[in-house]
User: Fold this.
Amino acid sequence: MMHNILQQAAGNAMALGPAVLVQGMQLKRPIDVVREPSLSVDDKRTILAAWASDYYAVESKPALRQVPGTLEPVSVDEVQSALKELDRRYGI
Assistant:
């Protein structure tokens, strides 16, 4: 019973992913995450890394990613560019 509850919770967390961190924000593009002043650097990296993951790949279009709460898919290259910009801004 407890195992099933934990599995369901983990599944729900994956389904929501970074949307949990961005609830109520108008983040349409990956660069919006980099520019969002209310997020910590760690939260920005978490959101962008999740956005880049295969988990959010659009079916039949592996170069596109879409996380819950975003209006349209973006290219994985755009997400990677935002991660590079994050590193540049924070000297990482």
